[in-house]
Amino acid sequence: KEAPPGGPSSSSAGMASSPCGNGNFDSGLEIKTRSVEQTLIPLVSQITTLINHKDKPKKSERTLAAIHRVGQAVSVAVGRFVAVGEAIATENQELKDEMGQACFEARRAGDAIAQLTDVASALPSQADGRVTVFSDRTGMVKAARLLLSSVTKVLVLADRIVIKQIITSRNKVLVTLDHLERVSTFQEFVQIFSQFGNEMVEFAHLTGDRQNDLKDEKKKARMAAARAVLEKCTMMLLTASKTCLRHPDCESARINKDGVFHRMRCALEQVIDIVTEARSCGENQLLPASIYNGIKDFKSSVECLRENLYSSSPQSMGSQLEALVERTEDFTDSAYTSHEQRQAILSVCQLARQDTQQLMNAWIEAQSVHAKEATEDMEVAILKTCQSIGDLRREVHKVAVGRATDLLKVHGEQLPLRALKTAGAEGNLEAVAEYSRKLTEQKEQLVETCRLLCHVSGTEPLEITCVHAEETFHVIGPQIISAAQTLALHPSSKIAKENLEVFCEAWESQLCDMALLLREINDVFEGRRGDKRPYLSLPRPGVSRCVSFWLCLQEQTSMAKLGLELRLLSSDLDTEVEKWEAQEHDIVRQSQSLASMAYNMYLFTRGEGLLKTTLDLFHQAEVCASVSASFSSSPPSILFSLLFY
């Protein structure tokens, strides 16, 4: 076995902390996923054990045997690891050279460690007869560093395969999406959408795993937002496309459909930007400057004066405060902010100005006498300034959260949505226009409230979620209106009615998400951190705990896929039934009922739909089973035709 060449020595602590601490190696590789990090931890632990024993080269036989086992275990593990890496290289020619070199270096380093810990190669001491190992300290350190670096490189290269899978899956979805946009018949649409549903489920799994694996919380939040858009838009795409096919000359239907396709493409592009970091994970789209971050930075500058009076100037602190106060204009200039709330915010801002001015005066005086540390007057001013800034944070938090809470209570009744549905079904275009204006006003209130919540969210991931909520309300509002206009133009169309219902459900779902977001913001403000909410067809916390307990992840996955298929089948069945004259046919009515019940059960696992309790779910399952049993006497050919439709 070839021993590695010598090199500069390194401390064991530094080498052990590097892989899982800052994530950087001699090779310049950065660990960005938890799976790579967790894979390295056992290896780092074993190598640390070996390196730490370097300080006492004379070992007892028992200790020597343990070190020998560790060294051999490292070598064997590296051998198995390299075999997998080489297999990956064979299947992915574009990585063959890089992966082959990394595997070669890992195998060489593993062999070197095995040789250095081999009892047969150790020499007995002339003094006491004990065996002395690790005579080549530099060689062991060099081999360990090479092993960690090469193994990390193999893992990072393997991670490229995961990224490649996501990109490939996205490309398939885009191609099918283009086909869906150009279809001209229902039959063609049904066939392509079935393929699209399968591809979306695959893409959801890949991106869901990636989201959970990311170390960067901001990237995880952006991924969650993009995946939420894709999940909700999938159902909108189904009904909007079918509406366009049924009413090809309807302009509002075309606008409605185009909006969904555009939003899905943007979300798909955002996912790829995150996983490939093509745009530094969207960092070029900077988050709006929030009051919370401004307060945090200003308070940090104030408290730093205790340690260094000369790190900045009093003028810069005054400018920093004014920039912070300027951000409060989103609150004070809002037409929805009450006079009392506006005055309270302005009063706190004025108090902060006064306290900061006193601090600046004491600071200038301390600098004039060349003080080395904060004077007593400065210390008092620092405490008062921090207190007034804390009061400002509490005041804007109270206004933002109070506004959001009130809006959720009012909008929970869904009066404009109900009125739009009724007016559309009656073909009343004037009423649709009137209630569209009310919904637009509601949308503007929600958009502004999301902007205020972003100011007080407390963390960057929650800021990203606030921005996502703002964008969602901004987009879905006009889409609901276009769907209502289409229904008003075609009041007898079941597809147009279903389409409006789907968009209204998306609005209601976003209101539910906003309530969860509000709870998380309160948790951060009060020093608590609740569980993060899941996306993509997983049961929501507290909504369906019994179902979450009984359904394993695989069953939820299957239900997500079947849910799309059920919605497609039931929707197309309704479409086909519209052509039938004998709608009272028992099989038709029973199949419609069965599809509706099955889809309601699917929605329950997501915390949505008509079923509200576990008891409701069980009762629905019993009814569904009895309806299914009645099909046993139906002609198989008829059942097959219904399933096909």
UniProtKB/TrEMBL annotation:
Coiled coil: none annotated. It comes from the Eukaryota. GO terms for biological process: cell adhesion; Rho protein signal transduction. Keywords: Cytoplasm. Residues 1-26 are annotated as: Disordered. It is found in: Cytoplasm. GO terms for molecular function: actin filament binding; cadherin binding. Gene3D superfamilies: Alpha-catenin/vinculin-like. Residues 8-19 have a biased composition (Low complexity). Its main location: cytoplasm. GO terms for cellular component: cytoplasm. PANTHER family: ALPHA-CATULIN. Belongs to the vinculin/alpha-catenin family. This is Alpha-catulin. It comes from Scophthalmus maximus. The gene is ctnnal1.
